[in-house]
Amino acid sequence: MSRKVSILGATGSVGQSTLDLLAADRDSFEVVALTAASNVRQLAADAQRVGARLAVIADEQLLPELKDALAGTGVRAAAGQAALAEAAAGEAEWVMAAIVGCAGLEPVMAAITAGRTVALANKEALVTAGGLMTDAAARNGATLLPVDSEHNAIFQCLAGQDLDRVSRLILTASGGPFRTRSKAEMSQVTPAQAVAHPNWSMGAKISVDSATMMNKGLELIEAHYLFGIPGERIDILVHPQSIVHSLVEYADGSLLAQLGPSDMRVPIAHTLAWPRRMATGVARLDLVQVARLDFEAPDEERFPALRLAREALRSGGAAPVVLNAANEAAVAAFLAGAIHFTDIARLVGETLETMVEPAPASIADVIAIDRRTREVLSLQLEHAT
Ligand code: NAD
Ligand code: MG
Q: Strand 94-97 to strand 117-120: parallel, antiparallel, or no bridges (unpaired)?
């Protein structure tokens, strides 16, 4: 029997990897809906390629263009936030949440509330609303499956074990393109250098996050909410080859690790077939070729984002929302050439110090805090430039 699936953020890096897997196995999957922010042409082409029933473009002004592109194909076109929520909570039993940033919050929550199996790539949703999401998942019988390679690795290493016998989670980090650069060198790097990740091919925002190591900070918070382990028992370990995707240490001293090629199709396939396994055309890992695995401690002096994220998790309440929103806005400013690379963490730190916000009790609260944080950050940007 085929599994009904939808992809939120189908035109992105994770969305496209998911589509590759679906297109290679048309008999096992039935595609209900695909969504995108604004890339009409890609969305229309993909919807036809995999035989989707619905294509949703977030930008309502682009609806006529999408309708044109899909005329006569049998794929229904829709636009706007309500249509995004419909795609998330519609007929699909399995929903890939691969929208980047806070924009994914409402659709993800719609899928969870509808009790779907949600493959979660959108880490910003867990960072900013992790408690709200896991509570809603428990209430509505939704299943959250981690797509982020580190969290997927941990999920595989936990394999139904008792959490009270887990002593530590160890998140591996590649260290990004500037792992060996000095602070002075980092202040001069360009957006093009920052998005050139040594091991993974990803969207622009997460690539910059990998370079500042804010990505690992966000993943620390993500791991806390996904697995219910306190931040003090989640370590970060730099591992430049990105072969060991993360580890779990048990009370008896055993360390379980998941290894694999640095290809997002592997963790995505794990969530697509879960609780079974599916074949993928991904190149096998040749450990003889790899020959060695290196590990080193992270340097919070050169990568202050790690410390900021750990502190935000410890403070709790609105702090992770502020951290995430300030980071999204600062990364956008860096990509636009408005600030230096090292300004990203500095601005995030300053925003965290300035803002006093109550703990969010709903997604609407999270979105309001996100908005206020962006306003504060844009004022700081005006002062800085
Ligand atoms: P991307 O930028 O390549 O794609 C983002 C997708 O979201 C696109 O389809 C885009 O159309 C859609 N989108 C953007 N803004 C939107 C909006 N306002 N409304 C509706 N849709 C919108 O990003 P990506 O690299 O695929 O990452 C997606 C998510 O997965 C991120 O949260 C990222 O942190 C996470 N993730 C990515 C990778 C990776 O390898 N790329 C790995 C782990 C986690
Ligand atoms: Mg990751």
A: parallel
